[in-house]
Amino acid sequence: MRAARRRAAGIVLAVLCAGGCAGAPQPKLPTSEQARSDLIKAAQQVLVDRCLTARGAAGPPPRQDVLFGSAPAELSVTLATGYTVRTHTDGCLAEAHRFLYGDQARWFRAQVTVNNLRAEAQARLKDDPGYRAALARAAACKDRDARCIKASGLAEVRGRLEPARLAEVRTAHRGDIATYDQLRDRALHRAAPLLAAHPTLHQKEHDLS
């Protein structure tokens, strides 16, 4: 029995070591948000370039229908502001997103929603009568006169109300924010080893930012 257990333990250890004991160390992840965004952006460019080359559409310039997709847009998100954002699933950009984020549809919805939280908060300002009154005063200013607009008090009212409205919106979309953070973290861990094999391109992206 003990011999069997030792053999089983040895097999498990061998499997674990094959997955990481003797492997190369994982690339160090950046800590700042800007550096993380740059890393994901650079990895996305590597993936897009590979896809365009494989499809014979690298250019220059790259074929836009291959980059963004040419089939009817299959994904859409209608925002609380009334706008609808759509995207394709057949282009090289979509393929890169699937590699990095795992689920293109979930990422698209989360990204569009999170990127428009402030716009939704600003739309909610119109529910406040004080804001509507200040907005009307500003709209009545002739030729967009800066002094008149300042005197309307619109900026002060917006500055006072917007933080609370933004907090409300973030609470309402906490699920989308959690998904955004989760998938972005996944993309970061997928991007780091990919960029480790393309340090020159990553440095070029960093220099241009």
UniProtKB/TrEMBL annotation:
**Which UniProt keyword terms apply here?**
Signal
The region annotated as signal peptide is: 1-24
Respond yes or no to whether keyword Signal is given for this record: yes
In its UniProt entry, what is this protein called?
Answer: Lipoprotein
Q: Which organism is it from?
A: Streptomyces virginiae
